[in-house]
Amino acid sequence: MSFFSIFKSRLSKTSNALSFNILEILKKKKIDDVTLEELESVLISSDISLDVVNKLLISINKFRISNDDEIKTVLEVLAENIQSILLPREHILIDADSDEKKILIFVGVNGSGKTTTIGKIANKVSSNKKTLIAACDTFRAAAVEQLENWAKKNNTSFIAGKSNQDPASIAYQATEKFEKEDYDFLLVDTAGRLSNNTNLINQLIKMKNVISKIDSSIKVETVLVLDGTNGSNMIKQAEIFGNELKVSSLIITKLDGTAKGGALISIANKLEIPISYVGLGESVEDLVNFDSRSFARSILNLDEQK
User: pTM here?
Assistant: First the structure.
């Protein structure tokens, strides 16, 4: 299956809801105030924010539709405008051809898919990079066990502490091991945090500070994992984590399981945080690099080529 085909097949819930309704509206063969109001409702129902919806509607409000080809043209214009919003947010988190060493701290609320995402990323890099996984969620034994299973499956080094141990102390041990034993990547799992809990956010800040002080020459990135089925609620989480922890990259999971995929566009438009991966299914291969063109065309059910 091609890269574009993965996007198109896995985003079918969003595209079925969005493209079908847009086509039904455009079959009226005209774009007037009534049509624009109907299109606004459809776009908002996919959790595309009103400011983005207004931009999209402005781009098509001068069209006069007389045949099916012009309907396709309207969809193409919408896709191009969505892509233009998303393109500046594309970000390569893991470059397998680079010699850069990197520490990635994964944060996010419970149930976002953080631990599984770490396992999938470890799978992608373990074949040609020396990788260490650190389990710093000391409050959930199941999370540690799940991560250890991923490490064994990928033949990846693993470090964990005792139950309820200070997560920052495990992070310190892991960073020392990463440096002394010359690893390429350190993937740090953290406990699921309620984004409105100041004490827990502060604990993450402490952990990040501990890691960053080991060696200032090593790049440290904070990666926020968001559950795509949460729709527009992701924006609030991204704002809080982004402000407090200086998040450098987003991974949005479970987009295959929602018709609210438009929220990703809203996040890209409102927040200047890069998007590195999207989760489009349960298998390792379904965690894919974010691609603005594939996403924009897939949710409107357009083909790869114009």
Answer: 0.93
